[in-house]
From TrEMBL:
Pathways per UniProt: Steroid biosynthesis; zymosterol biosynthesis; zymosterol from lanosterol: step 4/6
GO biological process: one example: cholesterol biosynthetic process
Subcellular location: Endoplasmic reticulum membrane; Lipid droplet
InterPro entries registered for this protein in UniProt: 3Beta_OHSteriod_DH/Estase, Lipid_A_modif_metabolic_enz, NAD(P)-bd_dom_sf
Family designation: Belongs to the 3-beta-HSD family.
Keyword Isomerase included in the entry's annotation: no
Enzyme Commission numbers on file: 1.1.1.170
Name under which the protein is recorded: Sterol-4-alpha-carboxylate 3-dehydrogenase, decarboxylating
Main location: endoplasmic reticulum
Subunit structure, as described in the record: Homodimer.
Keywords: Acetylation, Cholesterol biosynthesis, Cholesterol metabolism, Endoplasmic reticulum, Lipid biosynthesis, Lipid droplet, Lipid metabolism, Membrane, NAD, Oxidoreductase, Steroid biosynthesis, Steroid metabolism, Sterol biosynthesis, Sterol metabolism, Transmembrane, Transmembrane helix
Length: 345
């Protein structure tokens, strides 16, 4: 009987490796001596030694070609939360993730590390020091969150020691850092439109913002600690900066760092949330005719006006996680990385 030769444990693939988190992950893996294949719907950069495979993760045959001599897969692809397209979220995050799991199993991949999200337990109400045993949101706040819940469940349920296929999910929260296309650009765009004058609520709500290098560190630790006899098998892990900060202090530090005024005037949370729901309803009804993207979506308002910070005690215990870049240093590096978004430029 022919014995299957296992690929080296340092041969990995990053699905979604052209994205914000994915590219930082690829760069760190290369520094650590991994051989990396990127699978993504688009190729946006070139790194010597990294092979790129352009394709849709819903296409199992295309995935199989890339995964056949890989032992470890990171899955960090998703449509952007801003796209609000339920059909696309289900197709990519749920059906596509099933095809990733099947392709991994058929190709003999041993480990799958999923980038999930701490928002899988967020329903719009306060979460203070939330642990991984919080129940999944029963009424997810948007389609993105709804499908991230299903995605995490199917990946964790696929963990099977007998089949030599181990899975783990990383749940980051509020990732930021150089090249992030969401947080800082949306913030600056809102400030430039003159809409960043108001604080939603009393401004004391604490939130986790997690520097991208810490999220990368959590992913690699998880991959390296994921073994048949380890507690990581089939579990989810919060990865944060472990320094919750007032949402509005974080926003103000980024804005002031880039030369914009910090928001000053307070608006009641319930009022802004109500307006955001109304706008979402109107834009959904008008969508067949015009595609308007409101700045203040119910999700963003809920994130801006409630406490949502998470414990990463489990990651510290099971994989020795500690953030590698502290929050103030992370904010300074991020601000410095966006010279083109400075006020007046
Ligand atoms: N950013 C954040 O604050 C947080 C993010 N996460 C999770 O982290 C992961 C990475 O997020 P982030 O880096 O911010 O996102 P990005 O959008 O920057 O990266 C995702 C990448 O996946 C690609 N992609 C999308 N659909 C497919 C597909 N069908 N097949 C192959 N590739 C595809 C995207 O291409 P394209 O751009 O062309 O769509 C993009 O290159 C996601 O799973 C997200 O849910 C979790 C918590 C917080
Ligand atoms: C308009 C302003 C009141 C707020 C602008 C900042 C927001 C763009 C960001 C603040 C928190 C961010 C966040 C995410 C996206 C960008 C923010 C809303 C996620 C929804 C991205 C995907 C996730 O999995 C969870 C994130 C939580 C925090």
């Amino acid at each position: 009987m022919a014995t299957r030769i296992r690929p080296s444990s340092k041969r990995c693939a990053v699905i979604g490796g052209s994205g914000f988190l994915g590219r930082h992950l690829v760069e760190r893996l290369v520094e650590k001596g991994y051989s990396v294949a990127v699978f993504d719907i688009a190729q946006r950069y070139d790194i010597p030694g990294v092979t790129f495979h352009q394709g849709d993760l819903c296409d199992k045959q295309a995935l199989l070609k890339v995964l056949k001599d890989v032992s470890l897969v990171f899955h960090c692809a998703s449509p952007s939360p801003a796209c609000d397209d339920r059909t696309l979220f289900w197709k990519v995050n749920v059906e596509g993730t099933r095809s990733v799991i099947q392709a991994c199993q058929e190709a003999g991949v041993q480990k799958l590390v999923l980038t999930s999200s701490a928002s899988v337990v967020f329903e719009g109400a306060d979460i203070k020091n939330g642990k991984e045993d919080l129940p999944y949101a029963k009424r997810p706040i948007d389609y993105y969150t709804e499908t991230k819940i299903h995605q995490e469940k199917i990946v964790l349920e696929a963990c099977n020691k007998e089949k030599d296929f181990l899975t783990v999910a990383i749940r980051p929260h509020g990732i930021f850092g150089p090249r992030d296309p969401q947080l800082v650009p949306i913030l600056v765009d809102t400030a430039r439109k003159g809409k960043m004058k108001f604080i939603i609520g009393d401004g004391t709500n604490l939130v986790d913002f997690t520097y991208v290098e810490n999220v990368v560190h959590g992913h690699i630790l998880a991959a390296e600690h994921l073994k048949a006899d380890s507690p990581l098998c089939g579990k989810a892990y919060h990865i944060t900066n472990d320094e919750p900060i007032r949402f509005w202090d974080f926003m103000s530090q980024v804005l002031v760092g880039l030369g914009y005024d910090a928001p000053r005037y307070h608006l009641p949370y319930a009022l802004v949330y109500g307006i955001a729901i109304l706008l979402w309803l109107i834009t959904s009804l008008l969508r067949p005719l015009v595609n308007i993207k409101p700045t203040f979506t119910p999700m963003r308002v809920a994130l801006a006006g409630t406490h949502h910070y998470y414990s990463c005690y489990r990651a510290k215990q099971d994989m020795g996680y500690q953030p590698v870049v502290r929050l103030q240093e992370a904010i300074a590096r991020t601000v410095a990385s966006y010279p083109h978004l400075k006020s007046g430029s």
